[in-house]
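Blinded run. Sample ID left blank on purpose so nobody reads anything into the name before looking at the predicted structure. Input follows.
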Amino acid sequence: MSPLQIRSALPSDEAAWLRLWQGYCVSCGVSLAPEVSQRTWKRILDPDSAVMCIVAEVDGQVYGFANCVVHENTWEAQPVCHLEDLFVLPSARGHGIGAALIEWLRNAMRAEGWAQLYWTAPPDDTAARALYDRFAQADGFVRYVVRPAAANPA
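Blinded prediction complete.
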């Protein structure tokens, strides 16, 4: 078997990414409209977009991905990287793929001069948190999300 390769997503990865993306969405209990997924993929490939994706490949098959957004931050002079989505095919877990994706991003942080790499995790996802705890400790912040209110009936 060939070694694990972590690399930027390519246009030819679309079908593999979409299968993994759909698996990720199911695991998160989220159902996205197809146009949202299409737009996400389009932004991943757009060199002018802040959205990026790296994939984990062995023998020509993609087993995992990390979707990130590199953005400015009011508390830092350099950009920061938000690891928004990390997913490894369930049958491939336990082989260091998730750790390799995070390690690639840590190396990119140093090479690109990002002030930080950060992510969030559900408090009850003990498997993911066991991986994440190898890289950093949770900072104790609680996330709040505000969405537009549903239209009021007339």
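Unblinding after everyone has recorded impressions. The chain has a mean pLDDT of 91.
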